[in-house]
Predict the structure.
Amino acid sequence: MKNKFLKSIFVVTLGCALFVSCKPKDSTDAVEGDAAQKVYVAPGKYDEFYNFVSGGFSGQVSVYGLPSGRLLKVMPVFSEDPQSGYGYSEETKPMLNTSHGYVPWDDQHHLDLSQTNGEVDGRWIFANANNTPRIARIDLKTFRTAEIIELPNCAGNHSSPFITENTEYVVGASRFSVPPDNDNGDVPINTYKKNFKGYLSFVKIGKEGQLDLSFQIVAPGVNFDLSHPGKKESHGWFFFSCYNTEQANTLLEVNASKNDKDFIMAVNWKKAEEYIKAGKGKRIPAKYAHNTWDEKTQSAKSVIMNEVLTLDASELKDICYMIPCPKSPHGCDIDPTGEYIIGSGKLAALIPVFSFTKLKDAIAKKQFDGAYAGIPVVKYEAALYGEVQKPGLGPLHTEFDGKGNAYTTMFVSSEVVKWNIKDLKVLDRKATYYSPGHLMVPGGNTEKPFGKYMVVYNKITKDRFLPTGPELAQSAQLFDISGEKMKLLLDFPTIGEPHYAQGIPADKVRNNGQLKYYDIAANKHPFATKGEKESKVVREGNKVHIYMTCIRSHFAPDNIEGIRVGDEVYFHVTNLEQDWDVPHGFAIKGANNAELLIMPGETLTLKWVPEKKGIFPFYCTDFCSALHQEMQGYVRVSPAGSNVPITYSVGTNLPKE
Amino acid sequence: MNRLFLLTMFGFALLTSCGKEKSNTDQDFSTPAAAEKTADAESYDPKRGLGKYETVELGASLDKALAEKGLKTAEVKCTSCHKPTDEKLVGPGWKGVTKRRTPQWIMNFITNPDPMIDKDPELQAQLELCMIRMPNQGLTEDEARSILEYMRQNDGVK
Ligand SMILES: [Cu+2]
């Protein structure tokens, strides 16, 4: 009986194995003998690469080491973070301000590292927020969010934050077309075709990384999905995939899959710049927040902007062209030479590869197939270099190894496929576990990929790790791609739902002037307390400002009296340490807020409104020394209207007799 | 054969020690130069300590302006834990420190505390009392020198 059962399982398994391309293999797929050695990073040794991974609906960005797969850090970007107090401290709250007010969460999908001459340079990494459209810049000296800009007229900012080869622009676009913000949005939803628009945002990046929403292109209401900039010859162009050219507004899974071909929209942004210079842009009202972190005052500020410059793609005929692309294109990837544009139709059984040279030629010769919403449609064959036949099912994303090969994830057949860009032949395929989305080769979307490792980020984890209830962490799978065949080396769990990721040789980041601590002498925070002698408590009406210091292992002051119920109490805590990796925490009982995590030399503020009288202990949450436990103090809260005077002290124990 | 083995081993030892050193120093995100100097326990000089200062020349009389600057720096970085008297707070009081220690020992210790705590028997004994390692407060050379001058003033140098 049992044997029979086993046999039938065997047959089923064998059957599955035969259909590799449509059913995942069993989870214990053979790993090559030396895989462990290849991912082992001995204690005290560093990984070769940083791997920055999007945090999906956690709103954060995580940092892993490769090849070890060790989690190095989680950087708060678009969501509040209780660990660091990001979004809770008074200084960081403005970072999450938007035209919709304070938005404490987002869905973070893609990342792109800054580049110089088409190579990753380790200065910044950019992150998109999908839900309330935003783009963030993270400084890689501090691994902190330095700036966030909101994108008006946009919803579902998905094809973002991809950047050009010299970090000139970072882009965003509407995945969900909507009526422009300043138009009457109170329209029937089924007037989509008439009233909805897709806006493409071009955000200029300054020398110090400053973001400036330079212009927006008004495009037809479709779903803009992903994008990538041109490179080398095609530098000056940007390519956006789009689907729902049916312009459906309901049941998109059916209604947006009707057309045999949707488009990749090619945008000539250099031309757009010329039009702007020539005064062809139109300023329209648009509210959006621009939030910046000032390292000197260690505070963020949020400015609401009121207008944006737009260019209409249907009026200015030679900035946008549509390239037909089969069956709901998703990924839109440009190879390192800048010549090949790889489209990936989610529902297509082939991968179309377009040639930039042919595209330019087709445009010059006006080889068009009419127009879509006023935008010329280039003839498919005129732009096509060739098609990869039978690559697998559900091609999504492609990255490159710099050796003439492309790697494409196949969502439906759960595999990653290696193919040659020149002859379009499939060279290798490996099962992934399961349903891969993006993949990443360090530098794999630049002109200089480091084609040694590849990581595939999977949507479904099922049997990869110890079970943790219905919810499992998504898995990432590391492959060695240095040889002819891909070799699976490692699985590791990730946070949120990682989408895209970036990788960079470790030295390019860790040798870029990493900050170990903030110089306390340079601390320009308006409430900084430079030394215990300056610590004090100041009442201003019902506001109480506490200038507090911390150092291993005490706060000053640590006894505070004279606070009243209903007071707005601001703990401005300055960490006096000047040593690497000695943050101190600050938390107080009952605060309807979070903690602070104050870096050495930094000042942060926690707002607290006590609602009860009594004694409220506060303490340091970050284990800082053997006497960390003793790093605590008390606040006495008296009833509203009480006349207990403000007093504060440190080192005064018993009442004077 | 034996010699070759020994040589290889020697070479290997050199390599490993270099390798180790390298993995910690090829980061340009600057460990203070002083902290990178390492020496073994046998060569530790309890009069000099460990760090970049071999000798420190002191003026015959006090440099008042420098001592003033030293106090200002100390108030930001030191006096949370050290009193000017001989009373222990978190760390020992400063009274008499310039009489107990050489100037170079003080300069080395305040700019390079961790390696010295690991080596110096007296600091080890002190650690057992205080239970807190003196933090590296990232003092610049000038800051350290000014604090030393303030310590001298505190000890009555005029
Ligand atoms: Cu602490």
About this structure: The mean pLDDT of chain A is 94. The first strand of chain A starts at residue 49 and ends at 54. The CA atoms of residues 560 and 648 of chain A lie 4 Å apart.
